[in-house]
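Colleagues,

Please find the record for the two-part complex below.
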Amino acid sequence: MFKANITITLRTSILDPQGKATGHALGELGYKAVQSVRIGKYVELEIDAPTHAEAALVAKSACQDLLANSVMEDYHVEIQELVAN
Amino acid sequence: MFKANITITLRTSILDPQGKATGHALGELGYKAVQSVRIGKYVELEIDAPTHAEAALVAKSACQDLLANSVMEDYHVEIQELVAN
């Protein structure tokens, strides 16, 4: 069993209003050190696959087919093996 | 300048309807290997701080004050240094 940790972010050329609003709110709270905020999605998948490579393949095609919008978003997949108890 | 990569996830005891719906949709698309899906938020902060430790402190208090709901969510912060061009 493998776990895929997927981060999905808006491409840098795309305006991120949610991040802008959060950055503004942090500024109001006194977080002057925070220069920019961008917000994306984080998806954890548990994948039943025989090998690390096959789990990565499943996770990447799930991103392409459903999880990410490839026109405006980038995704990054990290696979870790879950050790059975 | 540092970059904080923050993942915010629902605690495992909390039901994640968005993850359940996505898992169901992946099943319909034929992703039988995907056993479970949980969805969270991903936040990237650019923090102007003198040291790694101070950047981590800023990111963690931003999570506590605004980004995460500490009753139902857990957060994980990773700090990396941005090399100036």
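Chain B touches chain A through 35 residues (CB under 8 Å).

Comments are welcome before we finalize the supplementary table.
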